[in-house]
Description:
With 154 residues, the chain is an all-beta fold.
Amino acid sequence: TEGSGHDYINIDGCFTSTYNNYLIVGKANVTFGNTNIGIRVRASGTPLTSNSYSRNIAAMFENTYSDSANQTYIAMSYNDLITNDVNWFFYVYSPKIADQTYVSGMMTAANLHSTSFSGLVNNTTAYDGIQIFNANTGSGDLNSSKTTVYGLAL
């Protein structure tokens, strides 16, 4: 999917019964400044926004590690440090199975802010989509975005 000038990258119908696991690769130009980028799973076009996420993040630039339970999203970036071009890849494990869905990946930005992140969704819903978004929602924060979802055969 491609887009510009938006706060949310929503990809619906990308998780199917054909594959169990997925690789998501993307990029965006962040113009809002001091942005925190997050991930949410989606079911039938609606993101899960409840406190069902646990997350871990290691910020290499800050030499910092953080983990949290009962969150409303999985953080890809740490402490609102994204200010320019950002690139990411992450894996989503078993989103169509009504059990815990796991996520793990890496993100790097032009200002040398890079992270390793992981998390899980503690819910019993089967998900068919993903949302990547600016957790600090401004106006048109994810510009010139491009995101691709790959199904992985085992």
